[in-house]
């Protein structure tokens, strides 16, 4: 499946602005793949489908989390965290992508996790730094992303945690695990 075919498959599932975001994430992820010698084809597919489940009905997502035995604690956290893990399930079932490396990059793109692969890091970071993003401090993360993939991911994770803390939002354990693991890696 090439990029155009993949984009045609994802487009009907997304709002216009989300589709534009998806294309920017894909361009950003492909740039990172070239910089850090990752498989461009895999990165491209993971990026195109990373937000595939973003607009699924919440009750449907809840059912997938239960029937596919995804971590039950997801249900006690904000539903914004569901579209990654559920997306990985649906991209496999509905699109037919079976490559577990690609599916995991989709699965963990919101929270990150401990011991992320290069592919997972690239999609996670591209989602954060794509040129349409306007988070406080994102320009510094963009700079670091071109120098050190782990440092870029660490800064993105740290900013996300700080943002969530400032809003008194719960932080999912995988997000902390990503933070601790990346901190150890960059030292
Ligand atoms: O789907 P996108 O908007 O492109 O981006 P995303 O999937 O990275 O993140 C969606 C939202 O999830 C974003 O507003 C930040 C939030 N988020 C990330 N990690 C955590 C989190 N929310 C909670 N409650 N806990 C987390 O650990
Ligand atoms: Fe997302
Ligand atoms: Fe993200
Ligand atoms: Fe996204």
Care to give the gist of this entry?
By secondary structure, the chain is an all-alpha fold.
Can you offer a commentary on this structure?
By secondary structure, the protein is mainly alpha-helical. The protein has one domain: Hypothetical protein af1432 (Orthogonal Bundle), CATH 1.10.3210.10. Helices cover 64% and strands 0% of the residues. It is built from ten helices and no strands. The longest helix is centred in the first third of the chain and has 20 residues, at 16-35. 39% of the residues are buried. One fe (iii) ion binds next to helix 2. InterPro entries: Diverse_Catalytic_Enzymes (IPR051094), HD/PDEase_dom (IPR003607), HD_domain (IPR006674), YqeK (IPR005249). Keywords: Hydrolase, Iron, Metal-binding, Nucleotide-binding.
């Amino acid at each position: 499946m090439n990029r155009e075919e993949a984009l045609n498959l994802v487009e009907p599932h997304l709002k216009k602005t989300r589709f534009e975001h998806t294309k920017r994430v894909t361009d950003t992820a492909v740039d990172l793949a070239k910089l850090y010698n990752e498989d461009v084809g895999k990165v491209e597919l993971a990026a195109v489908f990373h937000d595939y489940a973003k607009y699924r009905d919440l009750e449907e997502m809840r059912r997938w989390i239960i029937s596919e035995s995804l971590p039950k604690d997801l249900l006690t956290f904000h539903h914004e965290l569901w579209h990654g893990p559920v997306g990985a399930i649906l991209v496999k079932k509905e699109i037919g992508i079976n490559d577990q490396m690609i599916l995991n990059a989709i699965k963990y793109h919101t929270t990150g996790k401990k011991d992320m692969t290069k592919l997972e890091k690239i999609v996670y970071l591209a989602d954060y730094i794509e040129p349409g993003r306007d988070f406080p401090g994102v320009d510094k993360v963009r700079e670091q992303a071109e120098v050190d993939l782990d440092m870029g991911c660490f800064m993105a994770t740290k900013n996300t945690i700080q943002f969530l803390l400032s809003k008194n939002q719960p932080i999912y354990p995988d997000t902390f695990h990503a933070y601790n693991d990346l901190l150890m890696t960059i030292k």
